[in-house]
Amino acid sequence: MRPLPGGACYLLLTTLLVTGCANRSGATAVGPTVLSEDVVCSSVSSDHAAHVLAMNPDLLAEADLMILRNFFPVPRIIAINGSLPVVSMDSFAGFLTAMGYPEEKIRNPLNGARSYSSYIGSARLAGMVAWYYEEDGVMPILIGHSQGGMLVVRVLHELSGDFRRDVEVWDPYADRAEGRTTIIDPINGHERPVIGLKAGLASAIATGKVMRLLLGQWDMLRRLRQIPDSVAEFTGYHLPHDPISGTIFGVGNGDWYRPAGSAFVRNVVLPDDTGHLTVILAEPLAQDRGARQWIAAYDPDRDMSMPLLAKGSGSPLFAADIWHRIKAAWCREVQDWIISKRRVCEAVSSGR
Length: 352
Description:
This protein is an alpha/beta fold.
């Protein structure tokens, strides 16, 4: 028996909760946690909420993460494996939980795994993104390695409507489409299509065009480096001498990810000795005291000498940079959630 969701219904005031859940055409039956208007409004007007709004997303302390984790919605992280079965995103997921991210927000609810297959259809995954957003009230974070990175970019194009006019909502617990192409927006309680949703953060690691060509993924050749407006921030991580991602002679201008519109796109070139299969083996870094402290203090705008680590420990630069971006996106999602819920509370209080 699947647990009660804490999402869209959790995040709306009682009136919006009841209306939104009751009107889902063809939706899987779920048992929303109905909170009273007073409880919701008390939460967004609390000292914790004020503290979150005062946070600088790029400079978060452990105490800040505890408040985000314990009192407010947490974005789902969808970590997507590459095509090769010899390495998965499991170590990366273990790194995130060791650094303080809630494990239940990483595990695949269908099988308990800490990562997702890169052979999932992009429309299905986009439908899952919509389902998670509706249930959690904050947009999921998408991170993919190798072919998984391609799938992340493809999902962004799905959400932009580049492949089809409509995308069905997909229930990740029941593993089936819900027969609807709209959700109840957890922010305002209005019905809206899946197409047009915007993630806060997405990332691709060591993803290149060579494998797209070999795997016959022709429709992604021209789209792979173009990041649509269905994400606020995207970071691409490149390996300088990686035959698998096609950068054996270095990262060239054609390897750069670029915004198709207004998305903020970053490109990070990792050190020369970073391996395609070892870059995501990040869990040991969180277990090494020196590396963990360096990662926690990491600032991409400062020149910081990397710690010396034993072989096979993954890339400290990748781990530090992606953790920095995850924390910032997490904070921004909660800040936006608090602001939007305050507006609803003020409207209800004033009788509008």
